[in-house]
TrEMBL record:
Record-stated family: In the C-terminal section; belongs to the NnrD/CARKD family. Belongs to the NnrE/AIBP family.
Binding residue positions for K(+): 58, 126, 162
PROSITE patterns: YJEF_C_2, YJEF_C_3, YJEF_N
Lineage: Bacteria, Bacillati, Bacillota, Bacilli, Bacillales
Top-level taxonomic group: Bacteria
Record field: catalytic activity: (6R)-NADPHX = (6S)-NADPHX; (6S)-NADHX + ADP = AMP + phosphate + NADH + H(+); (6R)-NADHX = (6S)-NADHX; (6S)-NADPHX + ADP = AMP + phosphate + NADPH + H(+)
Residues reported in the UniProt entry to bind (6S)-NADPHX: 57-61, 130-136, 159, 326, 377, 444
Name of protein: Bifunctional NAD(P)H-hydrate repair enzyme
GO BP annotations, alphabetical order: metabolite repair; nicotinamide nucleotide metabolic process
Record's cofactor remark: Binds 1 potassium ion per subunit.
Species this chain originates from: Lentibacillus populi
InterPro entries the record matches: Carbohydrate_kinase_pred_CS, CARKD, Nnr, Ribokinase-like, YjeF_N_dom, YjeF_N_dom_sf
Amino acid sequence: MYIVTAKEMYEMDRHTIQEIGLDERLLMENAGRAVSSKITGIISKQNQICIFVGSGNNGGDGFVIARTLHTQNYNVTVLQIVPDERITGEALYHKTLYLNCNGSVHVSSDATEVDKFVTSSDVIIDAMIGIGVHDELREPVYTIVSIINQKADFVISVDIPTGLPADEGITGFSAIHADWTFVIEAAKMSLFLEHTAPYYGKWEVVPIGISINTMDDVPKKYTWGEHHFRSTLPKRDPYAHKGTHGKGLAIGGSVEMPGSIAMTAKAALRAGAGLLTVGTAKNVISSIAQTCIEATYLMVDDHNEHGGKAAAIPFERFDCIVMGMGMGRDKEAERLVMHVLNEANCPVIVDADGLFHVKADPSILSKRSDPIIVTPHPGEMAMLLEVPIAELLEKPFHYSRAFAAIHQVYVVLKGKHTIITVPDGKQAVNQTGNQGLAKGGSGDVLSGIILAMVMQHKNIFQALCNACFVHGAAADLLIRDNHSYYDLLATDVIEGIPAVYRTFL
């Protein structure tokens, strides 16, 4: 499923109509019928339905929906909130068809009239304004939206809730709070932003025949889900041995935080790493080893023995390294991070405290020839970029893409909608996971799964996407079967990994 900006969506429409030759009236018919088929699955013929339509294509879709439901004997009323002269082109064509089917249209934007229609209806279908909004609504639409939000029992939006921007980076808006939104053809970027996603309510993307794959400039943003996971996860060779599935090194942990690296190690092994070494402080090895007996251990804090430098690490033995979890923020830890980034000749995943140390000299990222993956949560990403967290959350696609391009790194920006970005700008949004993951240690577990996946895949982008999928899907299955959002722990997620493989493979 593609994710598009408003500009990209308009270009896809134009390409389909002008270059492929699909008539715009037919495209509007497809949209209205497709959305109608979804609407009939969540309402009944006993419901009183009022469809609010405006000018433009969104209003035209509303007229098709009205005609389709009317001819199926649903109780439909249409309230047109713009004067008749504003209904033109294809929207006028479909309004005429609706009227020819004995449908009726009321024309009013008066607040008192609007209030009557809203309070007398069981279902409001919002087809007033589509994806072209970039600022606050004007009157009378602002008041109409306010009345619907305050008094409607159930609201379904067509393509996007009226007043909501399709793009990121826009905060000054007023919009419908929909219970359901049926998004046409491609997911809009605002579906995955913390400040705009709640307006959609439940949502589903409805294909209508708009061309994407035949365009020269295919959008580089899409969602990653079950289909991708099934089709891209490498199959295990019956004749494989432990070295086949990667030799990984996980560096982190300290006296204060030994659990972080332990969770990373266990998650990596559960996710499929063939061999794993834990590089950690000498005085915590014994405690970690009791919880993760399958790993081997390497002492990485013996600075005196090595002349004040980080301990010798046999980098040539490893296929991938993850570091940063629980390692602390002192100078010794910083020297260790820089040592790994300067000397390791394999992919390196930087998480947690490792990101803090990278902030001291971000240029070290672009100097490496081997891949680097950074896995920040929003606070860490804001720190790296030196922007406020709120600003980052308003434009996470932009900032992730900018950081990846500037430093030539892979970025996994963690959150409700984790965004995976590669250096060339391609992006994916993970579709799994839930609020049970909002616990300490969840990121450490994800880092371990990423380590395992990078060692299995030849394609790092697919590895990162599949790691996020497994992490979130484990939490989803655990919540479904025997946990709640409240009690789920990071260690539970590790033990939930096998269920992901059994369920989806």
